[in-house]
Each structure stands twice: as C-alpha cells, then as structure tokens.
Specification:
- By secondary structure, the chain is mostly beta strands.
- The protein has strands spanning 7-8, 41-49, 55-63, 68-73, 78-79, 83-92, 102-112, 115-116, 121-127, 131-139, 144-154, 157-168.
- Strands 1, 5, 7, 9, 11 and 12 form a 6-stranded mixed beta sheet that branches.
- A hairpin with a 5-residue loop joins strand 2 and strand 3.
- The chain is flat.
Length: 190
C-alpha cells in the first residue's frame, strides 16, 4: 500500500571493489556505487600507487541506518523436520526532538517454504533508542528455499527486510562395529 517501506534484500559484506582505475591529470579518481541494504558501518579504503614506486592509502567510514530497523536473527541451517523461532530484532534510533519516548511497533512476518505455526502479526512496546526481539514460530516440512519477510512499523517509520535460507534434508550418520575371530575367512554384512 501507500507508504510501504522499500524492501531490503541485498546483503553483502563487500559493497564495492575495483582495481586498476587511473587518475586524471590532477591525480584524482571518482567512484560512485550503490550501497547494499545492510544497516551497518562500512569502511571505505583506497590505495594508490604511482609508476615511480610511490604509494598512499586512506580510509573513512559510512554508517547506514533507518529510524526504525528490523534485523532478522535466523539460524544458518534449517533442516526438514525442524521447528524453530524466526526472530527479528527491532530497534530504533534515539531522537532527542521526539515528544514520546516510547514506541508501539507492529511487526508482521510472511514466509514461503516454511509453515508459520503461530500468529503472523505481533506488537511490541519499546523505548525509543532501544530494541526488542520478536519471535515467530515456524516449521520446515520440505526441502527447498525458505523466504522470510519481516515488516516493522511505528507511525510513519517502517522497515521491511527479506532473507532467504536453504532447507536441507536431515543428515544422519550411522556407525557400525563388528568383532570376532577367524583363522581363514569371514563374511560380514554391514
């Protein structure tokens, strides 16, 4: 609907990498790139080398955030037959200008590839500048890909994030041991 938060689904540890760019005559190079959807602090590093063996380096930081943020906390591995809680950490940035120090947040989860076994919408009250964990029970019945979508909304502030996990078949390890004695030969079935 109107006012929906844009979906965050592009998560990368390296936002941008390029090697071999040449500078202009003044020794400057310009870069532009789109940051991924991670809400975090990115470190920006540059290394320059001249043809006469001179070099230099520099670094800076860029922090990305929303006033209301939803960060999924999902297990790395999901296997068929698992019952788990799909969690999302909802946090807000401090706002000294805000009249209300408390937030009422509605959190909604939709999922594909797994079954939601409880309510898909939950509400949480939290302090502005704080955080709260919201859990949704789910179960995995078949192998494939699971897609978890979380939306947190408080008034005009919202965040929507999507994460994928692979659902794998359970792996079971079976060990067998035999013992005995033979002077010629023995046939043992495992």
């Amino acid at each position: 609907g109107d006012g929906d938060a844009p979906k965050r689904a592009d998560f990368r540890t390296t936002a941008y990498f390029e090697a071999g760019r040449k500078t202009d005559v003044e020794g400057r190079a310009h870069f532009s790139f789109k940051l991924p959807d991670n809400l975090t602090t990115f470190r920006v590093m540059a290394v320059a080398a001249g043809g006469d063996d001179r070099f230099g380096s520099g670094d800076s930081k860029i922090t990305t955030f929303r006033r209301l943020m939803a960060r999924p906390a999902l297990p790395r591995l999901i296997r068929v037959g698992d019952a788990l809680e799909a969690s999302v950490i909802v946090s807000s940035k401090p706002d000294p200008a805000a009249k209300d120090t408390k937030l009422h947040v509605e959190v909604r989860m939709t999922a594909k590839g797994v079954t939601v076994t409880g309510p898909a919408v939950r509400s949480v009250d939290m302090v502005r500048g704080g955080q709260a964990e919201v859990r949704f029970p789910v179960s995995a019945a078949a192998p494939g890909e699971a897609v978890f979508s979380f939306e947190a909304r408080s008034g005009a502030d919202a965040d929507r994030v999507e994460m994928k996990r692979k659902i794998e078949l359970p792996v079971s390890i079976e060990s067998a041991a035999v013992y005995g004695e033979t002077s010629h030969e023995a046939s043992i079935a495992l």
